[in-house]
Write a structure and sequence with these properties.
By secondary structure, this protein is mostly helical. It is built from 4 helices and no strands. Helix 1 runs antiparallel to helix 3 and helix 2 runs parallel beside helix 3.
Length: about 90
């Protein structure tokens, strides 16, 4: 999901001069405003582009992944290895 949202942000930025088709914009809006998100949507803070609002959701997904992996390391009593292993794990996935 993280990779998909990253690619979607890139695609929207690449088409900066063009408007996103309405059916796609509605789907993206539903994703951004879905109830599962903990952070409030930044739509109220002035005029933000769709990709900027998606970046907020991407950041939340990245933070959730980080917290989950940190929790798993803590559970296994390997919290001292977390920073190094987390960076390795993310670079491997990339």
């Amino acid at each position: 999901m993280i990779e998909y949202v990253e690619r979607l942000i890139g695609a929207i930025k690449a088409c900066s001069g063009q408007k996103v088709p309405e059916e796609h914009a509605v789907s993206i809006e539903q994703f951004i405003t879905h109830y599962v998100w903990h952070c409030k949507d930044r739509k109220d803070t002035g005029h933000l582009n769709l990709w900027q609002r998606l970046e907020g959701r991407l950041n939340e997904m990245l933070e959730r992944r980080r917290r989950l992996i940190k929790y798993l390391f803590k559970k296994e009593k390997r919290l001292d290895e977390f920073e190094e292993k987390f960076a390795q794990n993310i670079s491997k996935k990339t």
